[in-house]
Write a structure and sequence with these properties.
The structure holds two protein chains of two kinds. By secondary structure, chain A is mainly beta. Chain A is built from no helices and eleven strands. In chain A, a hairpin with a 4-residue loop joins strand 7 and strand 8. The chains are: A mainly beta, B mainly beta.
């Protein structure tokens, strides 16, 4: 089983739609979680960290479910500029320095006008 | 503020040649990471350093790959000899400290081995 798994999509949604992605991880001891976005032929950029209590940044909401070992990303009121690949990242860790980072393969989102 | 700086942006070379990729992390960041990204395997962590010391190199594919960080502002990833299957985009990233902090990526080096 892969360490981190994501639905590759593609998700094709109209502007204004709400879309949600999930990412499952295999190790219950995983300790930190992130969502990155990557535009075509560009570097990954941090979208948001995911905290245990869930967190929101504008139109983006991230949640962590430790019991079921998944994190989610909700995008409300989708914009054309949200079109990108969204990568889930997990620190399968024994600590902040002794862990290991795993990236999901990414979920591709296309927002159409 | 300057981000992570990688060079070269593109490299095309023949198999068997030595390839050296370079990275300058963000000033003040204590952790540096080298990644490889391919369509087949996605983004893979190759090695990471804390305070210039390699912490985890278990992602380095084989002995042909080596990485060094002689000081806090410079790192290299070397492939010798290179093979066509090494063709990929190589990213360098840095963070303030360790794996729990957000990482800032460079623009990447697109490597093609003919």
């Amino acid at each position: 089983r892969k360490e981190v798994e994501q639905d590759p999509g593609p998700f094709n949604v109209p502007e204004g739609a709400t879309v949600a992605f999930n990412c499952t991880y295999s190790n219950s001891a995983s300790r930190s979680f992130f969502w990155y976005r990557q535009d075509c032929r560009k570097e990954p950029k941090l979208l948001m960290s995911v905290y245990s209590s869930g967190n929101e940044d504008g139109r983006f909401t991230a949640q962590l479910n430790r019991a079921s070992q998944y994190i989610s990303l909700l995008i409300r009121d989708s914009k054309l500029s949200d079109s990108a690949t969204y990568l889930c990242v997990v620190n399968k860790g024994r600590g902040s320095t002794l862990g290991r980072l795993y990236f999901g393969r990414g979920t591709q989102l296309t927002v159409w006008p | 503020d300057a981000g992570v700086i990688q060079s070269p942006r593109h490299e095309v070379t023949e198999m068997g040649q030595e390839v050296t990729l370079r990275c300058k992390p963000i000033s003040g960041h204590n952790s540096l990471f080298w990644y490889r990204q391919t369509m087949m395997r996605g983004l893979e962590l190759l090695i990471y350093f804390n305070n210039n010391v390699p912490i985890d190199d278990s992602g380095m594919p084989e002995d042909r790959f080596s990485a060094k960080m002689p000081n806090a502002s410079f790192s290299t990833l070397k492939i010798q000899p290179s093979e066509p299957r090494d063709s990929a985009v190589y990213f360098c990233a840095s963070s303030l400290w360790g794996l729990d902090q957000p990482q800032h990526f460079g623009d990447g080096t697109r490597l093609s081995i003919l």
